[in-house]
Design a protein that fits this description.
Helix content is about 70%, strand content about 0%. It is mainly α. Helix 1 (about 5-20) packs antiparallel against helix 2, helix 2 packs across helix 3 and helix 2 packs antiparallel against helix 4 (about 95-110).
Length: about 120
Amino acid sequence: MHDQPSVSELVQAVKNFIDETAAPNLEGHAAFHARVASNALATVLRDLEQRPARETEEAARLIALLSAPEDSELETLNRNLSEQIQAGTLTAETPGLLAHLKATTIAQVEIDQPRYSGLKTAKT
């Protein structure tokens, strides 16, 4: 049986082509755009690798915070969270809210900008 490449493998192959073949032969704006494309593909790879676990962790925090059913969808949980914050039902004083918001933000920054200078400090 022939297995086709995974999405991650396909994205990595394109990134490798840009980094190893195309970019070294480019100058000026084209070289800059090649670096932008490579960085975008690196973000996609991190997202493919990290998002499933991060969303599972986020859902677990929200289920606990909102006392929601275990089978709640993440989108529904986030909508409920937003509505409760907007209504004033959840505030900065609500146990677990700020920790959840911080953890969710850090998880997204680790995907989008893993070399962000403040990330190490934010994680402490």
